[in-house]
Design brief:
It is built from six helices and four strands; from the N terminus they run E-H-H-E-H-E-E-H-H-H. It has 155 residues and is α/β, with parallel strands linked by helices. The chain is globular, with a radius of gyration of 15 Å.
Length: 155
């Protein structure tokens, strides 16, 4: 099976710990995570992954989701299969805090959240019903296992 074409823009905002986050997000790994999370009906994808500080993350979550706190990943989807276009915004301090709380390597948590956001970009949603949440989690577990990562929902 050949994987879909992917155009990736990987961006890092300027913040104190940006170098640490850049170090665990080499471009080739981010590409691999996203490409493996693209579903069978996707021919190509144009995705921007932006790593931000708490202030930018909170501002985007407040402005677009009307929730006034920084969250781990926000997905802005613009077009669906066969050509997926989306922005994934990950809030570095939240991702780092969650990884530490979960006892997971930072890279493994980023892999999970980028897969999670990529699935959101394709229309999967865990907030619509318990059945949808279970289906999305199962897809994440399957993709992450194929990438060599443990089940992110087992702590």
């Amino acid at each position: 099976m050949s994987l879909p074409e992917l155009q990736l823009s990987l961006q890092f905002a300027r913040f104190d710990a940006a170098a640490e986050h850049r170090a665990v997000l080499p471009r080739h790994k981010v590409i691999r995570w996203i490409r493996h999370a693209l579903l069978d009906d996707v021919m190509a994808a144009e995705i921007t992954v932006r790593i931000v500080d708490a202030e930018e993350g909170q501002g985007l979550n407040r402005d677009y989701r009307h929730k006034d706190y920084a969250t781990n990943v926000l997905t802005f989807d613009y077009s669906a299969a066969p050509i997926v276009a989306a922005d994934l915004v990950l809030c570095a301090p939240v991702v780092a805090r969650e990884a530490q709380e979960l006892g997971k390597p930072l890279m493994a948590h980023y892999a999970h959240l980028i897969v999670h956001g990529t699935l959101h970009a394709q229309g999967l949603d865990h907030e619509t019903s318990e059945e949808d949440a279970e289906a999305m989690e199962a897809e994440e577990i399957r993709i992450l296992a194929g990438l060599g990562y443990a089940n992110p929902y087992q702590h």
